[in-house]
Every structure is written in C-alpha cells, then in structure tokens.
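Note on ligand handling. Small-molecule inputs were canonicalized before submission; formal charges were left as drawn, and no protonation-state enumeration was performed. Where a ligand contained multiple stereocentres, the stereochemistry in the source SMILES was retained. For adenosine-5'-triphosphate, this procedure yielded the string shown in the input block below.
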Amino acid sequence: MSLLEISGLRKSYGPVEAIRDVSVSLRDGELVCLVGPSGCGKTTLLKCAAGLLAPSGGSVTLGGEPVTAPPPNLAVVFQEYGRSLFPWLTVRRNVELPLREKKVARAERDRLVSEALSAVGLADRGDAYPWELSGGMQQRVAIARAVAYQPSVLLMDEPFAAVDAQTRAELEDLIRSIWRTFGVTILFVTHDIDEAVYLGERVVVLSGSPTVVQETLTVDLPAERDQLTTRSDPRFTELRTHVYAEIQSAKKPTPAP
Ligand SMILES: Nc1ncnc2c1ncn2[C@@H]1O[C@H](COP(=O)(O)OP(=O)(O)OP(=O)(O)O)[C@@H](O)[C@H]1O
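Structure output:
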C-alpha cells in the first residue's frame, strides 16, 4: 500500500512552468531516490511533498490524507546543514527541539535524543555546539534530529552535496543503516547518479524542466550494500550507466504538449 502519493503534480512560478506532470508513489518502508538534471525542479517537488509549497495542480497525500501543510509525521533534511541548526543550542538541544514542540515528555525525549545521537555516531558530542563540529558531523546532527522525531516519512534534499567525498560515502552508509534500523520511508533527492543507485531501492529519473518522470528503475542490487563491494558490482555499473544515459536525454527540454 502506498504511504506517500504524489499524483499528477504541477508547479509553475508565475509564467515559469517548473513541473509539468510528476507522479511518484512510495510504499511504507521504501527508500526511493529522485534524480534529475540541475534545475529540473527536484527541490520544488520535495517542498510540495512536504506541504511547504502549494502545487499548481495535482495532489500529494500521506497515509491517504491530503498534504496542505507540513504533516506532523514527516521530517525534512535539507542540504544546508549550516543554516538548519541553531548555533546557540548544543547538539542535544538541537535534536531535542522538535520533540519539545511536539510536547514529548522529558524522559522519553532524553531516550529518543540519545538513541538518535548513537545511531549517527555522535553519542559523545551532545554537549558540543554545532560550530565546533565538522560539516559532515553537523549534517549527522540534522539527521539525528529528523530520526529522533520518529517520522513515518523522511524527505532529504541533496543532503550531502556540501560535504567532501569521503564523508559523503560515510553518510550514504549511515542513511542505509538508519533506513534499515528504523524502517522509515525515505524520499531522497540527489543530482548524483551513483548516489541514487547506491542508496535507492528504486530510482525515479526526472526530465529537464518543465519536468516529467522520464523513467522509474528498480535497483536490483542486494540489500546488504557497502561502498567497495556494491560499487564494483557489474550490475551497479550497468544501472548507473543506464541512468546516466537517461539523464543525458532528460536534459533535453520536454516538447510542448
Ligand atoms: N521561488 C521561485 N520563483 C521563481 N522560479 C523559481 C522559484 N524556485 C524555483 N524556480 C525555478 O523553478 C525551476 C526548478 O527549480 P528547483 O530549485 O526546484 O530545481 P532543482 O532541480 O532543485 O535545482 P538544482 O538541481 O539546481 O538544485 C528552476 O527553473 C527555477 O529557476
């Protein structure tokens, strides 16, 4: 059964048609990657899915309910970790903040924060301030905050675009591990083809703007993935080459209907 349903979504900014027709459906517990050329409307699509932006047409439903404002059981992790954390709050406090707003009782809050910080490997950095941490660690804090909130859906908008390649690989593995541990449904937006194939159970390829779904691909790689084995698997190479070719043709703008 689908949990998050994006159906016939359209979005124009005044005369600029950004998204023409996108439908994506996520089953409960799925990890789906959205990949497309730069400027194709990935962020726009994600904001519409999160209830942060009203679509011009089509619909978004979460658990059968229409999404018209940010739903309580959905969390978003953005690319710019530097701007998403409060510098005057410690790591623990940053992670705890949405739980306070949700009026979670103190003991439960402490438990959820500790569990989330352990899951991202920052159990011993709770008293640090974000600016004392590296970029990759700050993004881990943002991920811990989303996880502690126990969302049923996690939307991620190019969350690793601003970190170095090694950190990025570690964070990719972290997402797979969090996904498997917590059973959260994830929609992960990236412009990185290898990342999309490495992470996803399915990859949705978007066309150039005005955007339509170019292709949806099932990633038939083993669930147990690691940077060395998976990336040297001939099937991985086949899939990424296929998606690369799709993106190249997707860069051509969609002809007018
Ligand atoms: N607030 C806005 N007002 C007008 N046009 C906008 C606005 N936001 C986005 N656009 C336009 O909509 C299109 C899609 O933008 P969006 O940021 O969603 O793409 P993206 O795929 O996330 O881009 P990138 O890969 O570069 O991050 C672009 O043509 C952009 O210029």
